[in-house]
Amino acid sequence: MDNIFSILIGLVSGMSSGFFGIGGAVILIPALIYIFKFSQHLAQGTALAALLLPVGMLAVIKYYKSGDVNIKVALFVAFGFIIGGFIGATLMQGIPNLVLKKMFAVMLLFISMYMLFGK
After folding, report:
1. pLDDT (tens digit per residue) in 40-53
2. 23 part of a folded domain
3. How distant, in Å, are the alpha carbons of 11, 71, 76, 98 from that of 5?
4. 41 within some domain
5. In a 3-state reduction of DSSP, which class is residue 67?
6. How much of the chain exceeds pLDDT 90, in percent?
7. Distance from chain centroid for Cα 64
8. In this predicted model, what pLDDT tens digit does every residue of 78-94 receive, in sequence order?
9. Distance between CA 105 and CA 28 in Å, rounded?
10. 21 — phi, psi (to 5°)?
11. Cα separation of 96 and 118, whole Å?
12. Which domain range does residue 58 map to?
């Protein structure tokens, strides 16, 4: 049953990623926490492992064919993401699970409020 839930979570995350450009953090991490009862740390690590391979490759190809990908910017963002991911993963290790979970929730809340009420 866990395998079926894993595939369903991946399917919903992938569809969200292809449709909105999101999925990894917004869908996958909460699903791992609440469905599989993972700790925040385990959910984040598992999400990163699942997304490590070219999970979004087919979606990127579709966007690219439509002219909706700036390769130069994407490469620079990817470079920063590699460095930032390492730094973030290093800093996260010392934070207690409950604090990290609350930080994640506040980040999602801030982003959603800004997108809903910002310019």
Report:
1. 888 888 888 787 76
2. yes
3. 10, 34, 35, 24
4. yes
5. coil
6. 17
7. 21
8. 888 789 888 988 988 88
9. 13
10. 85, 10
11. 32
12. 2-94
